[in-house]
Q: What sequence folds into this?
C-alpha cells in the first residue's frame, strides 16, 4: 500500500475552499453593476453557494471583457465606484459569502500606463515589464502562432522598431515575469486587494507567465499548428508561483488562489497545487472542457467514455495530495447543457439536472457558472455582427481569410463561441423557477444543500464503475461507513441496468436520495435520468 492511500481527505483538505461551492459571475451580464450584484446577494444565499468569483472588475477598455486591465488599483466605472465595490464586499461577508476576484497577471491592456511608457521609449523604467524582441528581415522574432487569435504572438511597435509579445490579442501585451521588479509590483497589487478584505483570487492564465527560454521557433505538427505550449506550464512558472505565495499569501492564509491552468499534466498539477508545496491552492484543468475543441472554433464529437476519461483520473490525484476543482460551465465556454447535455429542448432541463447531480457527486471544490442553475442554453446568432466577443471575431476573420464559408464558420461559432455564456441573466426566469418544485433552480438548491450536509460527497474517495452501456455514468463514493452510488444516463435512449451489478455491499441497504424522474422505473434509466443512492453499512 502506498503511504498516500492512508490520506483522510477531511484532515488534509481542511480549508474553507475545499468545502465550497463557488459561483462565477460575469458582472456585466449578471446584474450590470456592483449595486446590482449586491441586490442579488440574497438570491445567491438562497441558492446555497459559499463564495462568488467576480470576473475582472478593474479599469479596462474591455477589448477582452476586462481581461485587459488598464489600472489594477481602480474599478471600472461602468460597474460603479470603489465605495460601491466595498459595500458589495461587506454585504457579501455579512451574509457569510466569500468574494474571489479574477486577477489578470499574465498581461495588461495596451492602455496600461506601464505599457504606454514601455512602448514609447526603450529607456523607459517599464520597458522590462514587457517582452520586446527584434524581428528578422521584416518577420517577427519567431514563428509562434497563438491558438486564441490564430495569429502571430508578436506585433510590430513602430516607436521602438521592434516587436512585443502577446499570447492573446495585440491589445493585451504579456508581462515579463523574469523581471523581479515587475513581480514585486504585481505582489503589491495582490496585497492592496487582500487588505480590502477580498477572500482570494482566480488567477487568470497563470500557467502562461513563464515563456520558453530563448524564444526559439516552434515546430508545428499537423494536429497542433499553435505554439501555446511554448508559453504554457513552462518549468519556471512553479518558481514564480512559490515566490508569490511566499511573499504574499503566507501573510493571508485564509485567502484562496485558484489558478487557471489549461493544458496542465498530472505532474504539473502536483507542482502547482500539492498541499505540501506552497504554490497555488486550486487549479482549473480543462481536459473535459476542450474535449470537443477542433481547430479554429470548430467542434468535434466526443463520447461519454471520453468525458469520463477526461474527468476521473484528476479525481484520483487527491490521493497524491492534489485537490480537484470541478466545473462544467464558464464565461469561456458554450452553455453547459449544450456542451454536455441534451441537444434538444425536450430533455434540456432534465439533462441540466442530471449534469449538475453528476458534478456534485464528484470530489473537489465545486464551481457553478451563473445561469446554469436556470438551465440556460446557447443562443442562435444569425450573423457575425451579433457576436460581441473579440475571440469570435478573430476566429471569423482568420477563417474567412483562409477560405472557409460564412455559413460554416457561423455554424461552428453557434456551437462553441463564448458569447453564449455572456448574455444577460433572465431574472424573470429565475423568479418563475423559484416557486416551482421541479425547476432546474430547485434541483440546484436541493443538490447544493444535500452536498453541504454530506461528508461522503465532500471527502469520500471516488471510484468509477464501468458498465457495458456506453452512455451510462456510474460513480461511487465512500467515506467512513457511508457510501454513495450515482447512476446517470447521458443519452436520449432508455438504458436497462441492474443495481445489484453496480453497488458494492447489499442492495437492500441502499436508499434513493436524489432523482430527476417521476415515476421511477426500477429496471431502466429514462433519457438523461440520474439517481443517487446512499447506504450506511
Ligand atoms: C482567460 C480568460 C479569458 C480571457 C483570457 C485572456 O482564459 O478566462 O476570458 O480571454 O484568459 O485573459
A:
Amino acid at each position: 500500500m502506498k503511504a498516500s492511500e492512508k490520506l483522510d481527505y477531511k484532515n488534509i483538505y481542511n480549508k474553507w475552499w475545499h468545502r465550497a461551492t463557488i459561483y462565477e459571475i460575469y458582472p456585466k451580464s449578471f446584474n450590470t453593476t456592483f449595486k446590482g450584484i449586491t441586490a442579488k446577494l440574497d438570491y445567491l444565499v438562497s441558492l446555497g453557494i459559499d463564495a462568488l468569483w467576480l470576473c475582472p472588475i478593474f479599469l479596462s477598455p474591455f477589448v477582452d471583457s476586462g481581461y485587459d486591465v488598464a489600472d489594477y488599483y481602480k474599478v471600472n466605472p461602468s460597474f460603479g465606484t470603489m465605495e460601491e465595490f466595498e459595500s458589495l464586499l461587506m454585504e457579501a461577508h455579512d451574509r457569510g459569502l466569500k468574494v474571489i476576484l479574477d486577477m489578470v497577471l499574465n498581461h495588461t491592456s495596451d492602455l496600461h500606463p506601464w505599457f504606454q511608457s514601455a512602448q514609447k521609449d526603450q529607456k523607459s523604467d517599464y520597458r522590462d515589464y514587457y517582452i520586446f524582441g527584434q524581428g528578422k528581415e521584416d518577420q517577427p522574432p519567431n514563428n509562434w502562432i497563438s491558438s486564441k487569435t490564430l495569429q502571430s504572438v508578436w506585433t510590430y511597435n513602430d516607436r521602438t522598431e521592434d516587436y512585443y509579445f502577446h499570447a492573446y490579442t495585440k491589445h493585451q501585451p504579456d508581462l515579463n515575469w523574469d523581471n523581479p521588479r515587475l513581480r514585486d509590483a504585481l505582489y503589491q497589487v495582490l496585497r492592496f486587494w487582500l487588505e480590502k478584505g477580498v477572500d482570494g483570487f482566480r488567477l487568470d492564465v497563470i500557467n502562461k507567465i513563464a515563456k520558453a527560454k530563448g524564444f526559439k521557433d516552434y515546430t508545428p505538427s499537423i494536429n497542433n499548428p499553435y505554439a501555446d505550449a511554448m508559453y504554457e506550464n513552462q518549468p519556471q512558472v512553479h518558481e514564480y508561483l512559490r515566490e508569490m505565495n511566499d511573499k504574499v499569501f503566507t501573510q493571508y492564509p485564509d485567502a484562496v488562489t485558484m489558478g487557471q491552468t489549461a493544458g496542465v499534466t498530472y505532474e504539473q498539477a502536483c507542482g502547482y497545487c500539492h498541499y505540501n508545496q506552497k504554490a497555488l491552492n486550486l487549479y482549473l484543468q480543462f481536459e473535459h472542457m476542450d474535449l470537443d475543441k477542433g481547430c479554429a472554433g470548430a467542434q468535434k464529437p466526443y463520447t461519454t467514455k471520453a468525458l469520463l476519461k477526461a474527468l476521473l483520473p484528476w479525481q484520483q490525484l487527491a490521493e497524491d495530495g492534489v485537490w480537484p476543482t470541478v466545473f462544467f460551465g464558464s464565461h469561456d465556454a458554450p452553455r453547459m447543457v449544450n456542451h454536455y447535455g441534451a441537444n434538444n429542448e425536450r430533455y434540456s432541463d432534465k439533462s441540466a439536472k442530471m449534469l449538475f447531480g453528476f458534478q456534485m457527486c464528484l470530489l473537489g471544490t465545486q464551481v457553478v457558472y451563473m445561469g446554469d442553475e436556470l438551465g440556460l442554453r446557447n443562443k442562435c446568432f444569425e450573423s457575425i455582427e451579433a457576436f460581441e466577443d473579440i475571440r469570435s471575431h478573430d476566429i471569423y476573420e482568420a477563417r474567412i481569410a483562409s477560405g472557409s464559408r460564412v455559413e460554416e464558420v457561423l455554424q461552428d461559432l453557434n456551437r462553441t463561441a463564448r458569447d453564449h455564456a455572456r448574455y444577460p441573466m433572465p431574472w424573470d426566469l429565475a423568479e418563475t423557477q423559484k416557486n416551482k418544485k421541479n425547476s432546474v433552480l430547485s434541483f440546484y438548491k436541493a443538490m447544493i444543500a444535500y452536498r453541504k450536509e454530506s461528508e461522503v460527497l465532500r471527502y469520500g474517495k471516488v471510484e468509477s464503475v464501468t458498465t457495458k452501456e456506453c452512455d451510462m455514468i456510474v460513480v461511487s463514493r465512500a467515506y467512513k461507513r457511508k457510501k454513495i452510488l450515482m447512476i446517470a444516463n447521458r443519452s436520449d435512449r432508455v438504458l436497462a441496468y441492474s443495481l445489484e451489478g453496480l453497488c458494492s455491499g447489499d442492495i437492500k441497504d441502499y436508499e434513493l436520495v436524489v432523482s430527476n424522474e417521476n415515476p421511477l422505473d426500477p429496471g431502466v434509466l429514462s433519457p438523461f435520468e440520474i439517481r443517487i443512492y446512499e447506504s450506511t453499512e
Q: What stands out?
A: The chain has a mean pLDDT of 95.
